[in-house]
Amino acid sequence: xxxxxxxxxxxxxxxxxxxxxxxxxxxxVAGGTLARWAAAGRQLIYVLITDGSKGSSDPTIxxxxxxxxRQQEQRDAARALGCEDVVFLPYExxxxxxxxxxxxxxxxxxxxxxxxxxxxxxxxxxxxxxxYIQHPDHRxxxxxxxxxxxxxxxxxxxxxxxxxxxxxxxxxxxxYLASPANPNRWIDISATIERKVAAMARHRSQVADPxxxxxxLRAFAREAGQARGLDYAEAxxxxxxxxxxxxxxxxxxR
Length: 254
Ligand SMILES: [Zn+2]
Prior knowledge:
The chain has helices at 25-39, 63-81, 100-113, 136-152, 160-164, 193-201, 210-226, 241-244, and strands spanning 16-20, 44-50, 85-91, 117-121, 127-128, 132-133, 174-178, 185-188, 233-240. With 254 residues, the chain is α/β, with parallel strands linked by helices. The chain has a single domain (3-240), classed as LmbE-like (Rossmann fold). The longest helix has 19 residues, at 63-81. The protein is globular, with a radius of gyration of 17 Å. The structure holds zinc ion. Residues 21-22, 25, 135, 138 line the site of zinc ion.
């Protein structure tokens, strides 16, 4: 296997949009890859669908304060990976469903920023191995993102109110499903694993023990890379509309 095969996306130039449910999701599952793409000159845009208002064991913190903290931490973490554009949608944490309203809000951002690549959760995953249940918001965010990409974002007649806002249809080329059930593409993050670790540490309200989290992230990335002969990797399910158009990327790993 050539070096080249793990350099997907680093030579292209289009924007990359990371659509996730919660503050810390983008760093946790795709931070090394996003950092590589940003370093290659791609514009990174984050869209966080929920307000990050849950998942705290601090009995003294008020919801409004928690939302503000989580959003600031997310902006800091995004900046650490090279992302200046962070959009927060106002859906309640832990209550996310893939509704038409969520779909419309995602189509708005896709048409506004016009990404070439979208990274989001694999919506088919209910559990991981024998030790983790996928957060229902993660599934819902992935389902909403895919429905926004196809057919809604590209169809002129869907959500005419967005057209009225001046947002023209947009075709996303490539999709990378993170935390996938069946990965078919591995990105070498050996050069960016420490940036991922550093970005993750910015989520202070969620990372009680940064050293333990760092060890966990390195262990996950080592495990993902193992089968492909890489020191550190992130695994994805890769889907490309270019494949359908017949100009298939020959290096796609099946
Ligand atoms: Zn999450």
